[in-house]
Amino acid sequence: MRNKQLRILLVSLLVFVVLAALAGCRPPARKPLPPRTPAPTRPAPMRTTPAPPAPAPARQPMPTRPADIARLQDKLATEAEKVPGVKRAWVALSGTTALVGAELKSNVPRGQGDAAGLKNDIATRLRRAEPRLTGVAVATDAATITRVRRIAEGIRAGKPVNTFTRDLNDLMRRMAPGVK
Question: Rounded distance, CA 172 to CA 35, Å?
Fold first, then answer.
């Protein structure tokens, strides 16, 4: 009987130890805190007077009156005509995008690479002349030049730009798919 009691005592002690281990008698493990090192300090440069902050360049909005738009279109067309190989150019503005119809001189080579180079030269020159432009699309085919010229002359005649919205949107889709 004594053996029986001893066995029950040992079994219950074993069960108790196992339950205590499963229940987690130990406190939860904590991660050690990272060591705190002070940030290095740099001495401030010696100045007698604080330097004023540099003003951000003021970006003027594009013109909205037809007379101002016509003046800017004429200025940009004149700039485009300064590119060697361009006989005549017309510019139609739609917001900050310039659509250019460029008539090339007859002695200019008509290869695909030559036309692309001329278009790139025109776009670069117009962006330098007017930094407010975000997009420049150039066309050298006769049908597109005629459409751009008709829009530019209509705005020069005093018609509001929104009269040509449908034509401008269509030209922008055709000439420069990436320009929106």
Answer: 60
Return the DSSP state at 105. P
26 in the Ramachandran plot: left (φ > 0), alpha (ψ -120 to 50) or beta?
beta
pLDDT in tens, the chain (180 residues): 677 887 888 888 778 777 666 666 566 667 777 777 766 677 666 555 555 565 555 567 877 787 888 899 999 999 999 999 899 999 998 888 899 999 988 776 665 556 778 889 999 999 999 999 988 999 988 999 999 999 999 988 888 888 888 888 888 888 766 554
- H/E element, 102: strand 97-104
Task: List the structure tokens of 126.
Answer: 């117009």
What fold characterizes domain 66-175? Alpha-Beta Plaits (3.30.70)
- Quick check: helix, strand or coil at residue 3? helix
CB 126 within 8 A of CB 100: yes
